[in-house]
Amino acid sequence: MTDESRAPDPPPPPDRSTATDTDPAAALPAAFAIRLRPLAPSAPFRWLALGWRDFARSPLIGLFYGACFMTMGWALIKVYEHAPAWVLALSAGFLLSGPFLCLGLYQSSRRLERGEKPDFGDSLLAWDQRTAALGIFGFVLLVLEMLWGRASLVVFAVSFDGMPDFKGSLLALLDPENINFIVAYVLVGGVFAGLIYSVSVVSIPMILDQQTDAITAGLTSIRLVLTQPGVMLLWGALITGLVVLAMIPWFTGLLVVGPVIGHASWHAYREAVDSPVAPPP
To answer: For residue 62, what pLDDT is reported?
Structure first.
């Protein structure tokens, strides 16, 4: 057969990790083409067990990130102790943005999954693999949390003559006479918390594992929450409950709870989202 009669070679497939970074419209078909695996109702408890296993296998790395969570919690209380509306919103937003802050823990779990030994320096530099996508996603989370904080300030401003101190704000949340304020504050917080959770629940592990863009990862995360709401609501409730309990003794519980949830979130992603670059867990 001559060169003239031979069929031309097919064009190479598009590079999803770069094309969608510059063309948001291209991320739509890419996000909806990713297969989501069905999850059992008990899956969140299995993720926590796997998270504890990873923490036990690399405790020093986990304790470092747990200490970061604990220290940042102290810093939020100290800086915003005279602005209760901000500290309540930002504390929740900080904890809900955990998938971004736990990037090093995802990297450690990925190494353990491959049978490799986690490295502290490697976990610290995990962000360097996908700087652009992680930067875009971090900016989105920051904007959402700033909007949440501003909305909380508005609720406080229209509910009271002046801004109460930290103790006064907690009493206001517990006073049945402030039922309108309590309902409004809970509704505003619930909307923003649900949005941040839906966008971020598997996004950062996906960006790290599949070298994809921020838009595709965010849309895939939302798809997971919308298509399997029962399991994902249970996972969100477990995270919230454990974090609240860990915060009670002056954030010290985050020393262990934080890294365990971080490792568990990696396993949540690996079980829920099909990955073409690694075998199923």
So the answer is: 94
Instruction: Determine the pLDDT at residue 2.
Output: 45
For residue 45, give the H/E element and its range: helix 43-57
- In this predicted model, what pLDDT tens digit does every residue of 66-89 receive, in sequence order? 998 888 878 777 766 666 556 655
Instruction: Point out the residues of the chain with pLDDT beneath 50.
Output: 1-22, 279-281
Q: What is the pLDDT of residue 241?
A: 93
- What is the length of the chain? 281
CA distances from 200 to 138, 148, 205, 242 (A): 10, 16, 9, 18
The answer to whether residues 265 and 98 touch, using CB atoms and an 8 Å cutoff, is: yes
Q: Which residues, in sequence order, are bridge partners of residue 273?
A: 36
Q: How far is CA 252 from CA 97, 210, 242, 245, in A?
A: 19, 34, 12, 10
14-23's contacts with Cβ under 8 Å and 24+ in sequence apart are: 16/212, 16/213, 16/216, 17/133, 17/210, 17/211, 17/212, 17/213, 18/213, 20/212, 20/213, 20/215, 20/216, 21/132, 21/133, 21/136, 21/213, 21/214
**273 three-class SS:** strand
CB 78 within 8 A of CB 158: no
pLDDT of residue 84: 58
pTM of the model: 0.78
Instruction: Please return the burial class of 183, using the count of CB atoms within 10 Å of its CB with bins 0-12, 13-18 and 19+.
Output: exposed
> Domain boundaries in the chain?
42-272
27: tokens are 């991320």
Q: Note whether 205 and 265 are within 8 A (CB).
A: yes
SS3 252: coil
